[in-house]
Amino acid sequence: MIKIAIQSKGRLNEDTTRLLADAGIIVGAGHRQLISRAKGFDMEALYLRDDDIPQAVGMHVADIGIVGLNEVEERGLPLRTVMRLGFGACRLSLAAPKDSGYDGLGWFDGRRIATSYPRILSRFFESEGIRAEIHEIAGSVEVAPAVGMADAIFDIVSSGGTLLQNGLTEVHTVMQSEAVLVAPHDLDPEKEREVEKLCFRFRSIIDSRGLKYVLMNIPADRVGAAVAMLPGMKSPTVLPLADPGWSSLHVVIRESELWDKIEQLKQMGAQDILVLSLENIIR
Ligand code: PRT
Ligand code: ZN
Known about the structure:
By secondary structure, this protein is an alpha/beta fold. It has helices at residues 13-22, 53-58, 69-75, 118-128, 161-165, 189-208, 223-229, 258-267; strands spanning 2-7, 35-37, 43-48, 64-68, 79-84, 90-97, 112-115, 133-136, 152-157, 168-177, 179-184, 211-219, 237-240, 246-254, 271-277. The structure holds phosphoribosyl ATP and zinc ion (ZN).
């Protein structure tokens, strides 16, 4: 049985349990549990604070973990990023007060920067040859400049709303982050096979997100033109209808292009268009 460490509560908890559920693996919500036996996969879930997940995996308390790449990088442990999971997207950025007169990275020289990610920041400053004072604080980093604790901050940003509310401007992005599946480098081969099975399920779910399966009837003499403008995994499927003048066309379309493509298909004479959601793509 493999043990997976997941965030007990917080931003990644819900998306993590949803990804597992979509993969046919039901675990408890975690809010009051420490550990639970999963249904649908031979697995135990360990509920931890995100900060502790890299270490739990590094120490083999858990075999794998789902956590933000930012936490993995900050801990600096020898872990392997097995897979990016496509949720929890954010970036780690430097931000300065709006009226700071910021004029490039050199501005940080000799200044005080508040952050909960001192290791990532000091590595970055080192690589840029910047000497700044890094002040580690645990929470509410964004208020540090206003209360005089720092000249600037280095923190997680997603919409940027929090920076704006605190009179700060994002001046430099240091890293992009998202939730990742991590494992140690020396997982035993039997567990490694289980992790591969899990990744196979995750991959099929992640690949199918944002895709729609579209079926339609279209005049047979327009099929060539329709196929030419459609994507499709290999190429669209074309099936003859009982009426020789018509064909049925099946295709996978990215949600962002859906309406655009449907309008073009309608203009080509497509009718009875069905749009279905896609749950999995097994390649
Ligand atoms: O209790 P525990 O220690 O487990 O959780 P936590 O409070 O330390 O972390 P949590 O749940 O807030 O975040 C978990 C992970 O989610 C982070 O490590 C990131 O990988 C990821 N993530 C994605 C984010 C955000 N987006 C995010 N926006 N983590 C934090 N934020 C913060 C941001 O710093 C800002 O203060 O949310 C606020 C709103 O952001 P804006 O830019 O949208 O205003
Ligand atoms: Zn945390």
